[in-house]
Amino acid sequence: MSFMIFRFVCRPLNSVQHRVRNLYVAAPSRAGAPVLALREEEPSLSPEVEDTLAGFTNTLSRWTNIVQNRWEEMPNSERPAAVAIVVASVIAQLAIGATVDSIDKIPLFKQFFEVVGLAVALYTAYNYTVEPTRRDNLKKRVSSFVNAVTGK
Asked: Measured between alpha carbons, how far is 148 from 152 in angstroms, rounded to an integer?
């Protein structure tokens, strides 16, 4: 059962008291279900979740700035092509996802692809972990790929 948090701000009637009281009610999202909790403080997040959200927010703002700077550097004649490429890639991803989802719903294909995926994963793990030369080659390829992506 999913819940929605509602915030109510109540002002006391006594004019001597100037504080605002916050009431948080946790109510089920479906109609007719009983209210489960009433509390005076805002539900708090754990420090790990707050750190994760702060990191996500920083990363999102950094990427937004990068995209905005690239957009401003781009000549006006190339902007429609960039928008078309982005729209086409989103449509292609949706089409691929729908195709995979429809194939996944066929019972025989679903089990077959699971077995094929497991076999390929086991073959790859065996192929790259048994011989030391292949293991070293894989380490070099992965590190060169990481360096190429990060620009080091």
From this structure: 7
Tell me what percent of the chain is helix, strand and coil, each rounded to the nearest 5: 65, 10, 25
- Secondary structure class of 34 (helix, strand, coil): coil
Question: Which positions of the chain have pLDDT values less than 50?
Answer: 1-25
Taking the whole predicted model, whether its pTM rises above 0.90 is answered as: no
Give backbone dihedrals phi and psi of 14, rounded to 5 degrees, phi first: -70, 125
The token pair that represents 65 in the structure block = 């700035």
Distance CA 13, CA 16 (A): 9
Residue type at 111 in one-letter notation: Q
Q: Determine how many CB atoms are found less than 10 A away from the CB of residue 76.
A: 6
| Euclidean distance between CA atoms 9 and 25, whole angstroms | 11
CB neighbour burial string for 24-62, b if at least 16 within 10 angstroms, e if fewer: eeeeeeeeeeeeeeeeeeeeeeeeeeeeeeeeeeeeeee
Find the DSSP H helices in 31-78: 47-73
Q: Identify any residues that bridge with 22 across adjacent strands, giving them in sequence order.
A: 9
Tokens of 102: 């429809």
Calpha distance 9→139 (Å, rounded): 58
